[in-house]
Write a structure and sequence with these properties.
Length: 232
């Protein structure tokens, strides 16, 4: 796919910018990239700490046949990039990428829906690349990590961005092609939660992986949404 990139040195949230562009009719492949964000958005109304050194991008996606697989596919895309860089990423259902038991990247997929049809998706990705999590706000201490923390060296984000976008395009193509089995297989091979004791809202038990619809299975019960808390 062809990316049409709008760049900011600093912006409130690339997600807000991309949603506004999509509402104005921006085509599939429109991307907003920022070097830093002052009002980064996470899932469930949380904030996303986005200092310079990370990669923050929101992309407009149209005509996606099965949006359920976008978050899983993007997890694979980020994991592939981190693996090539030399890290060992794991995917925590449904939108988190972990390395060494700490969060290194997050995915936020927003959608605008009319009736039964999806007008567009905006997929936001934040990856902690350069810098050190030790410099992050105290509430993130212990739970976040950067690629530089893991590898001991920083990277040139401008040079690596084309590779990240290529990985994303490749995995989104699998979503468009309906290659759900491939998406699920790669995701399952990187599952951070499988076998662990977890809870989501009032469901508690052992995480047993994801079903063919991408839902988390806790003791056989499919969970469709929510934040997973580790209990072990
Ligand atoms: C999460 O793990 O809670 C999701 C984090 C998503 C962060 C990305 S960074 C690019 C895009 N713009 C935002 O404001 N948020 C997403």
């Amino acid at each position: 796919m062809t990316w049409n990139i709008t760049r900011y040195d600093a912006v409130g949230s690339t997600q807000d910018e991309a949603i506004a562009l999509a509402q104005d009719g921006a085509p599939d492949g429109t991307v907003v990239v920022a070097k830093e964000m002052t009002g980064g958005k996470g899932t469930h109304g949380r904030t996303w700490h986005a200092p310079e050194g990370g990669w923050y991008a929101s992309m407009v996606l149209r005509d996606i046949p099965d949006p359920r697989f976008v978050t899983l596919a993007l997890g694979n895309a980020i994991a592939d990039v981190l693996e090539v860089a030399g890290a060992e990423p794991r995917l925590k259902w449904v939108n988190d990428v972990f390395v060494d038991g700490k969060k290194i990247a997050g995915i936020l997929v927003d959608s605008e829906i009319t009736g039964d049809s999806v007008d567009f998706l905006v997929a936001g990705i934040g990856i902690n690349l350069n810098g050190h999590a030790a410099d992050y706000p105290s509430e993130l201490q212990g739970g976040a990590v950067t690629l530089e923390d893991v590898l001991g060296v920083g990277m040139c984000i401008e040079d690596d961005e084309p590779f990240i976008l290529e990985s994303i395009a490749g995995w989104l193509q699998k979503v468009r092609d309906g290659r759900n089995d491939e998406i699920l297989a790669h995701w399952r091979a990187r599952d951070f939660l499988k076998g662990r004791t977890v809870s989501v809202a009032d469901v508690q038990g052992t995480a047993e992986g994801i079903d063919d619809a991408g839902h988390l299975l806790i003791d056989g019960t499919p969970v469709t949404a929510g934040t997973v808390v580790l209990d072990d």
